Amino acid sequence: MPELADPAPDAGASSPRNAIVILLDSLNRHMLGAYGSREFDTPNLDRFAQGAVRFDNHYSGSLPCMPARHDILCGSLDFPWRPWGSIEIWEEPITVSLRRAGVTTQLVSDHPHLFETGGENYHCDFSAWDYERGHEGDPWRTRPDPSWVGAPSFGRGWMNYDNSRGFFRGEADFPGPRTMAAAARFVEQDAPHHDRFLLFVDEFDPHEPFDTPEPYASRYDPDWEGPHLIWPPYTTAGLASGVLDERQARQVRASYGAKLTMIDHWFGRVLDAIERQGLFESTAVIVCTDHGHYLGEKDCWGKPAAPIYETLGHTPLLVRWPGVPAREVGALTTNVDLHATLLDLFGAESRNVPHGHSLVPLLQGRVRSVREWALSGYWGREVHVLDGRRKYARAPTGENFPLSMWSNRWSTMPLHRYPELGLPLPDDRAVLDRMPAQRVPVIRQPFAKGDRLPFWALGAMGGSHLYDLGEDPDETRNRAGEPLEAEMTELLRTALREIEAPDDQLARLGIA
Fold first, then answer.
1. 511 DSSP assignment
2. pTM surpassing 0.85?
3. Are 352 and 85 in contact (CB under 8 A)?
4. Which letter does DSSP use for residue 236 in this model?
5. CA gap 405, 429 in Å, rounded
């Protein structure tokens, strides 16, 4: 239940007519000036934060890229049921709810996963969408420009980006800058013509490749010689196992910083457009991300098979709300709450089973909290529960079974290096089941030892992890096995039952 606030609601708070959501992929909270970092320059994000409500206890829900977008755009947690997929036939995205409410919706994005199998229908119900081509694995060009010689990839091998990269002649040609320029054009040229609108900017930067032109490329590592290391490894114990050395590690981190500073610069163009149009008086502007990115913290790199430590799961959320002064909010929140917040803002209703809670009462100062727990995880790996201070990552017992995937849109994350390595089709073990509160039958495919599992379920798990983040924010003392674990186990059981998670989730975790 929401906890009522002691102070009176913000007197100047008003109901916005519009919303702009800017999702920057793999945005590390601990590297932003707004959250106290001085490692890299983020002047425009910091400028935005000066007038925003800063959420200090915000977390990812479903990981990685497409599951996170499902949480935000559909309003229900994805990871307990499937690893990676598009909108199911029984679901409706926020765009459908807003269309019924008479709201114009615009998507601007360079995120290639939105247009691949497993993510290809999230854009369909926007009133309009703009896809800026050429980022990461986007199959934009059939041959490379001969001027591009490639870059070290730590075993990743050839990527579609190697065909695209030579066609970026200057900074403005890179996908991130083009996406932000397109968003600014919408704000200045189209937004004034709509009574109510949602602009959703799904920007893939600062996700890898950490590729930038000069002067960004050398800004944080001017002494580096040779091609910049734009493709980070995905591994645990990267330094300890020799995947990369200390010098390479500094270069990878500097290259991320270069990409962060470049996209911050172009984010400033969008802010300028919003200010010129006077939209801050009528528009809620939300800056968020799907997850962070390990750049050596705990010697982790990328998004490897590991528990979701703070670097990856504790994410930034900044909201500018008309009439609400800048302040810090310590209440526990999660990405799935953004869907409920947008519905509340526009007075719209969804037919989906909601897992989120509107943040509007928090923003307006009417309550001190909106949730008592939050769930987070990758499908097929540890399941995390947080209570605002403590985080418990429960690992499966035994060999990680029973484990089922629930979907009528049979897909998983594309692996461009291995195009034939898709998800096996359902077999004669599959049954028709029901999602919570749904009448549409759904295929439930069980997996067993020896089956080929989706990519994100691979990798060994080293037991459960429990941290008191109030006392141990760096997660150095694993308290699993102490009496506190019983309390957190019960909270996890309660949370999974409340969302009507599949019974095999509780069984494989040993808490049924």
1. -
2. yes
3. no
4. S
5. 12
Domain boundaries, the chain: 3-374, 398-508
CATH entry 3.40.720.10 includes domain 3-374: yes
Strand partners, 104: 197
Look-up of token digits 């996890």:
492
Amino acid at 110: D
Q: Encode pLDDT of 404-423 as tens digits.
A: 999 998 887 777 766 766 77
pLDDT of residue 57: 98
**Enclosing H/E stretch for 246:** helix 246-276
From residue 249, give the alpha-carbon distance in Å to each of 37, 242, 253, 313. Answer: 19, 11, 6, 21
pLDDT, tens digit, for every residue of 44-87? 999 999 999 999 999 999 999 999 999 999 999 999 999 999 99
User: Tokens representing 217?
Assistant: 């490329």
CA-CA distance, 208 to 179, in Å (whole number)? 16
**What's phi and psi for 490, nearest 5 deg?**
-65, -40
CA distances from 341 to 267, 284, 350 (A): 23, 11, 12
The token duo for 47 is 């400028």
C-alpha R_g of the chain:
22
**Tokens at 367, concatenated:** 């309550």
Q: Is the peptide bond before 7 cis (omega within 30 degrees of 0)?
A: no
CA distances to 30, 61, 84, 231, 265 from 291, rounded to whole Å, are 12, 9, 15, 18, 21
